[in-house]
Each structure stands twice: as structure tokens, then as C-alpha cells.
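lol ok so funny story. i was supposed to be doing the assay writeup but got distracted and ended up predicting the structure for this chain instead. priorities right. anyway since i did it might as well share w the group, maybe its usefull for someone
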Amino acid sequence: MSLISGFEDVVKENQPLAPFTRLKLGGVAAYFAEPQTQEQLVGLVKRFTENELPIRLIGAGSNTLIRNQGVGGLVISMASPVFCNIEINDDTITAGGGVQLVDFVAAAVRAGLNGPQHLVGIPGTIGAALHNNTSAVGFDIGTWVTSVDVLTRSGEKITYQKDELSFSYRQSSLKDLIVLSAVFAFDREDSETLTKQMQKLWIVRRAAQPSAEVRSAYVFKDHGGETASALIEQAGLKGTRVGDVEICDRDPNYFVANDDATAEDFLKLIELVKTQVHDQLEINLETSIGIW
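and the output, tada:
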């Protein structure tokens, strides 16, 4: 029996991954799946786990760098509508793991639910946001979680309540689990007031970041109360370039991949910045970008 027997309609072999990322870099996935039902997702996870092959999830691809050699095993996209539902009930939102964060924020603001407006302009999916505990201006998504439905790498479905989960800076206890859906609770606020807050935040954020059309990624975690952007600038690295990848002028913690960039250029620039910041400031920067 073939490894993908029974899943031929939703699995492709040697699928280029660059089109699924904002950076548009990197090689192929040995197997790439877009399951259309939860049953297909469970079946694929069990099949590849039984064959001791790695499984990865790709969401919006907004902060993912694929190496030139690509990745083995299975890469799963949860972009199917079955994983992208949003339901609002009084002061709670239930969102599928594949929901885009931008849609989550918009739905909350329209419903007069206070909190998500602070995450405006941040790309990604709900699943990735929970894995990484996405945050901005002192607000993180883990604060609003009441429960999360997950799928383990053995194909078991589990529901975790808030007191069973842990969230901290740029990480959570959900790291190795597939988020199927999550429930969030909020305080209420006038929708018009939230809309105005969101618009102001979006204007500020858009002015400070590369435009959505630019192939860029947010590279390092902040360190010890100082932003990675400030540390990179203190080290005199603003505008530094390796090959066709350069540090963004607007925000030095964004690296921009120009037309002839390669994943290898990107990796070399990461190492150059880490080395220079360590040598000049005695600080070890940790990467925020996912490198496959």
C-alpha cells in the first residue's frame, strides 16, 4: 500500500513550498496535504506517525523560512473551510485553527468584543498565534483563551481548559499539538469605539512595518525588555545586506527578500546579526522566525 493510499485527492508529492510563504523562498515538501475534513486530517496524522515521518503545519506562512533543500515528511495546510469557521456567542468567539488572524480581529471588533483589536495588522492563523502566543503592545492571545481542542501527533483529540494551558512570551504549551479550534472570552465594548482604536493602531503599525506586498519576515525575539529592533540598530546593522536579503530601514527586525534572494542568503544574514549583536552588546538573540 502506498503511503498516501486513500488520500490521493488531498495529498501532493514534491510540492514547492515557496508559494505558501510570504518570503517566497525555499524548496519542496516531500508530501503536502490540504485535508477537507477532520477525518482526513486525523487519518493523515495517524498514517505518517505510524511510519515515523515528521509532520509540520503551515498556516499563513508569514514568518516561515524554508531551506533550499526543502522538508521531508508531511506538511499540512488547514486552509479548508472546515478548519476556518468563526462563531460568536454572546461574549465568546469559537475559531478554527485555520482562521486568519485578520478575520478573527475583524469579527471581534464588529461584535463589540474588546481585546483583539490590539492584534490588528499581525499576519498568521489562530493555530500559529496560539502556538507562539502572538502578542502586541502588552496584549497576547493566550490571555483570552478559555479552551482549546487539539489533535496530538498520534491522532488523539483532546480538549484543554484554560487552567491546563500555559502561555508566556512568544511560546505556549500547545507547541507540538495541532490546534483544531479554540474558544476565547472577552469583555464587551462599543463596536464603534473598538473600530476607532483598531484603525489608529493599524495606521501606526503600517507606518513602522514593511508593506504587505514586500517579501519580509520578523526575525528575532525581543530580549530583556529591549526590542530586537533596537538591539540591531545599536549594533550598527541597519541596512546590512547579504546577497539579495537586507535589513529593513523601517524596522531592523524585519529582513526583506528582494528579487534574487535565496534562503541561504537569509540564513547567512541571521547568523551575521546574531554574531554582531553578541560581539558588540554581549546579547544572544533568539530567532522568532520558523526555520524549516
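The radius of gyration is 20 Å. The mean pLDDT is 96.
back to the writeup now i swear
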